[in-house]
Amino acid sequence: MQNNFLEYEKKWQKIWEQEQTFETKESATKPKYFILDMFPYPTALGLHVGHVEGYVATDILARYKRAKGFSVLQTMGFDAFGLPTEQFAIQNNVQPEEITKVSINNFKAQLNRLGKAIDWQKSISTHDPEFYHWTQWIFKKLYEHDLAELKDIEVNFCPELGTVLANDEITVKNGLMVSERGNFPVYKKTLKQWVLKITKYADRLIKDLDLVDWPEEIKEAQRNWIGKSEGTLIDFEVLDTNEKITCFTTRIDTIYGLSYLVLAPEHPLALKIATKEEKRAVENYIKLASQKSDLDRETQHEKTGVFTGAYAKCPISGRIIPVWVADYVFFKYATGAVMAVPAHDERDFEFANKFGLDILKIIDVPENQLPYTKDGVHVNSPLIDGQNIEQAKKTLNQHLKKIKAGSTTVNYRLRDWVFSRQRYWGEPFPLYFDEQKNVHLVEDKDLPLVLPKLKEIRPSGTGDGPLANCPEWVRFEKDGKIYSYDTNTMPQVAGSSWYYIAYILKTAAGVVPLNSKEAKKLLDSWLPVDFYVGGKEHTTGHLLYARFWHKFLYDLGLVSQPEPFQKLFNQGMILMNGQKMSKSRGNVVNPDEIFETHGADALRLYVMFMGPLQMDKDWSTTMLDGAKRFLDRVWRMHEFIAPAHNEGLDFVLNQTILKVEQGYEIISFNTAISQMMIFVNEVYKQQAISPDQFRTFLKLLNPICPHITEEMNLQFLNSNAQLVEENFPEVDHSKLENSTFELIFQVRKLY
Length: 751
Hints:
Elements: H1 5-18, E1 32-37, H2 49-67, E2 71-73, H3 83-92, H4 96-114, H5 129-144, E3 148-158, E4 163-165, E5 170-173, E6 176-179, E7 187-196, H6 202-207, H7 216-226, E8 228-238, E9 244-249, E10 260-263, H8 269-272, H9 279-289, H10 294-299, E11 306-313, E12 320-325, E13 337-340, H11 346-355, H12 389-403, E14 406-412, E15 417-418, E16 431-433, E17 439-441, H13 471-474, E18 475-478, E19 481-485, H14 493-496, H15 499-505, E20 506-507, E21 510-511, H16 517-526, E22 531-534, H17 542-555, E23 568-570, E24 574-576, E25 579-580, H18 591-597, H19 600-609, E26 617-618, H20 621-635, H21 650-665, H22 669-686, H23 691-701, H24 706-717
Parallel strand pairs: 1-2, 1-22, 10-12, 22-23, 24-26
Antiparallel strand pairs: 3-4, 3-7, 5-6, 7-15, 8-9, 8-11, 8-14, 10-13, 11-12, 16-17, 16-19, 18-19, 20-21, 24-25
């Protein structure tokens, strides 16, 4: 009998759908397990095998946990709002909603073909008013608790796209910022935008990383991004002006080594204090810096800068020092002004050498060790000679306080979250302005504020969002007064900051109100997320924002856990000839084609066998062929079914149960597969396996290859009991006693 995967895979997918096999079932007796894939963006082109890897991994774990007696929640939603869909719609003269619907249907079809055990009843999409009703409600609460503010702030602005762009929506070309979509020029610009005060949660965002089981490199990246530092604010008088430059430093002890001040190009004093002779050069430099990305400015090999012509006076040493503008300093970090000590800072040392500025040693070390950044005894520093760093800091901070020229403070690298986008395809802000520009919140009973359908969704050309193209929606009369809605919309990441909560609240009847007692009960039952899988690229974006929103909801008493995601797992990428798969590169592998030629089970098996889930791996069609041949070999095992128990298989079978369970527990699916291959080889060697032994093996393989195992259980064992409803096999340790075996490493070759 042939392995006709095309027939039985579709059959079992239909059965699971009709019987709602994967419906989430709460249980008072079973422990819960909430498994989450990072929120996918539904593109019109659908999935490629790079996406499949993470989805298969979570599905294996979900199926395994069910078999181990857990009540499992696994669903899938869609991060549907955002710039890509909007731009696609503009370019193709279609409505974003239409594209989104087609894309979601395509995604669902592909995930079903993959055999992913999804509870579709709990699926949500960010563009659904039923969902963004509560996104708007959360924003209202943020505003009411002084965590949302409308203010002038520097942003990345793309004139061609007519919108603010986040850092991850920007690339660098020839040293200048361009949009990821379209490669259009991007500039730094000051605009009035909504910001969320994530900085108020900075300490908790650092501290509570100790509560979660995340990769240490991700934790450290978040700590560094938040960037808590204790230091000193110190004021420098600018000569021949009434201006003061305030600098933040963590090394006030180096003040006697100060040789120049540096302003960020965006600093308001950069042009204001520039002399007549230097003003044009400063203007040109500021313009050039506005086209560079933050990353490029931080990592550029050669330091650049321009002298303002101005000088300032050090309040401690009395030294007169020049004031420069340089793009290695950022206005959004601390005060946007730095006291430069070249002898004891690497960046300052490089800058001073290039521009011929003084290098003043104040730590007692040989000249050839400069720049020296470690502790040591201070010299050439009248107030602190002979002191180490900590002693010197204490002495100088006391002195600054006495002369009223400075103070100690805590600074964070983290900036408040720019939350406005000049886009159509996003959540409307639940507020409106009166003619005096005062803010009024939409009442809860009037939520959601529904996004209007527009024929013209291009940028307005006025700096406003595309909603300005719909004056009949923007302007309205109430109680004889004229009001207007905000023409900006929320960023795409708004929905992804709380979507996992919406999964829990979604029922057949709709979304349970977030502020209800029923919601609290459901959230207490399922949170936190037990296992979250996704890429490292979301470390300082989505993962940070979701933690912020969750903590805010925790403060409101709506959730009982301080952190949303207990365990985080970062999967690697599947590469093609060493390169990331990308539609633009034309190097993607479409799973739809593989479903037809090899089957979903072969694809699932291969992407898990490629190597450790957390590592990058290169795609191989030859190895995919090998996965299919192995499953064909598994299929033919039915020829060896014999009524009598085969004691000769007992040891290797129990060894396999043990190692497969270990592999599933530690997310080492490749080693689990290797052990099952060893078992299959042994069956072929002995050519005898009892029905019970056969069924035990099918249970072990089922989480990875659910279709073929269910079909074999039905056809060759005549069992109507689906494996997906069965418990995971238990090891009979007596069969392993007085036996020795070597730890088998992964079989590197498929059949």
